[in-house]
Amino acid sequence: AQTVTQSQPEMSVQEAETVTLSCTYDTSESDYYLFWYKQPPSRQMILVIRQEAYKQQNATENRFSVNFQKAAKSFSLKISDSQLGDAAMYFCAYRYSGAGSYQLTFGKGTKLSVIP
Amino acid sequence: SAVISQKPSRDICQRGTSLTIQCQVDSQVTMMFWYRQQPGQSLTLIATANQGSEATYESGFVIDKFPISRPNLTFSTLTVSNLSPEDSSIYLCSVGVNSQETQYFGPGTRLLVL
User: Fold this and answer.
1) In this predicted model, what pLDDT tens digit does every residue of A55-70 receive, in sequence order?
2) Do A103 and B45 touch (CB under 8 A)?
3) Which residue, A34, A49, A33, is CA-closest to A86?
4) In angstroms, rounded to a whole number, what is the distance separating the alpha carbons of residues B57 and B64?
5) What is the pLDDT, as a whole number, of residue B98?
6) Does B110 touch chain A (CB under 8 A)?
7) B101 contacts A97? CB cut-off 8 A
8) Which residues neighbour A34 within 8 Å (Cβ) at sequence distance 6 or greater?
9) Which residues 52-71 on chain B approach chain A with CB closer than 8 angstroms?
10) Strand pairing partners for B104?
11) Mean pLDDT value across residues A40-47
């Protein structure tokens, strides 16, 4: 069974600084997707970034980028120029890309605080 | 992406009653998913709902407790039956887009059972 581990229950960052959230996963599959979702206090789950395992290039979305290390099964999220609105729970998630497999497996989350 | 709404946004229910949660999407989607997020926890998939077929439930979740309807390609309901305080959670629906590669989530329904 796939597992996703987020080892940092809480993190904090100064506004305008950079922070990296860690995520490791365990799978025997070679083709899969990895995601970072953000859940602010409003509880809406918002997709931050997506990475396909077959792509060597790290995904980037504006201030958000990932460091995807397939061999190490590591998928960290870097937030640059942190803003107050980035404060939220961040969940790392895995999904096998095989046909008929749609279940997302989530980590336990990292609570990010942004200090003004 | 997809725009997803849920009703109600929150509710307080008495033990033994049921709550039906609605999920509406602004476009036709093949698959819809229902998740539970217990207090301070991550998300757990309850079931996958395809239009025109029975929902597929994950281990630990049964149809009698969580009946699901999927009458068309833009709408689904989840009922949480015979409520107990342990059912107090956030319930989220999501839809798969881009050949189900990515799931987008609704705003969630916060349920408190007294």
Assistant:
1) 889 999 999 999 999 9
2) yes
3) A49
4) 11
5) 65
6) yes
7) yes
8) A23, A25, A50, A51, A53, A66, A68, A75, A92, A93, A94, A95
9) 58
10) B95
11) 86
